[in-house]
Design goal:
This protein has ten helices and nine strands. With 270 residues, the protein is α+β, with helices and mostly antiparallel strands. The structure holds 2-oxoglutaric acid and fe (ii) ion (FE2).
């Protein structure tokens, strides 16, 4: 399904797109599940997949798991994930208030540990994202190569910090636009396809041209390594996300059957 060129691109740039992972029917079912789940709770973002079996086959989707295993030359395990249903990200919010983030940003940086570690020059935990709207252009902005430790000392990173520091400063929006054009790349993800990226890669949502809710499934996987240990024991502990094997998590509805499901699919991290 994916070839060695894609693999090389992935290590070099920090991301790749897995084509044709979901059928139209699967997308529609997931979209329906997401709507129902969120309506019940009246929220826009939800982190507990355990409560809704409809998402379990997606988490253990063979095409995704095989692709990740091929990309990493290793076997991956499920780390965490959730779904979001953001109302139109307005152009105003996008251009003035948002700058790029890493998916490890919920935890404070620790030298040599987060978002890198002494053993690798990138953090070996991965985000898989898929969008469920057919009516929106699901655009995401990425900073290629920003997953690598060398990125810290580049001019590109200085420009990124400037962009971050000038959030909400209307009078420099022209300069911010120029920085965007220089350092980032916008890609549109088609429904049915999945974007995979290193959690250390800087990314940000881009306002769609048309309006609507932006429905996304975000899951994270990792092979067993010092980084996955750190991710579970440190990053997730410092974020609003909870690891599914924790005691607290087990008190949630359906958690035990979810864990058994993951064990059965050989993606339970223990
Ligand atoms: O919706 C998107 O495109 C990005 C979402 C994201 O990066 C996140 O929730 O961490
Ligand atoms: Fe993110």
């Amino acid at each position: 399904m994916i070839d060695n060129n894609t693999k090389n691109f992935f290590y070099k740039n920090g991301y790749c797109v897995l084509k044709n992972i979901l059928t139209n029917v699967e997308v529609e079912n997931l979209k329906h599940g997401l709507d129902e789940g969120l309506k019940k709770k009246n929220i826009q973002k939800y982190d507990y997949f355990n409560e809704d079996e409809k998402f379990w086959p997606y988490i253990s989707n063979k095409k995704i798991l095989n692709s990740l295993n091929f990309l990493l030359n290793d076997e991956v395990f499920f780390m965490d994930g959730g779904f979001t249903n953001y109302k139109k990200i307005s152009k105003d919010i996008d251009e003035q208030k948002i700058s790029w983030h890493r998916d490890t940003d919920t935890a404070p940086k620790i030298k040599g540990v987060v978002p890198y570690c002494k053993e690798n020059n990138f953090y070996k935990v991965f985000t898989v994202m898929t969008y469920l709207n057919k009516d929106l252009d699901n655009t995401i902005s990425l900073i290629p190569k920003s997953h690598r430790v060398e990125y810290k000392t580049t001019i590109n990173n200085i420009l990124r910090i400037l962009h971050w520091k000038t959030r909400n400063k209307k009078n420099v929006s022209f300069i911010r636009k120029i920085i965007e054009n220089i350092i980032s790349k916008k890609i549109i993800i088609q429904t049915g396809d999945c974007l995979v990226f290193f959690v250390g890669l800087f990314h940000k949502a881009v306002a769609p041209k048309n309006s609507g809710y932006r429905k996304a499934l975000i899951t994270r996987y990792a092979p067993r390594s010092i980084n996955s240990e750190n991710y579970i024991n440190y990053v997730l502990k410092n974020s609003s996300r909870t690891h599914y094997s924790e005691k607290e998590f087990l008190s949630f509805n359906q958690s035990l059957s979810f864990i058994n499901y993951l064990k059965n699919k050989n993606i339970f991290y223990q």
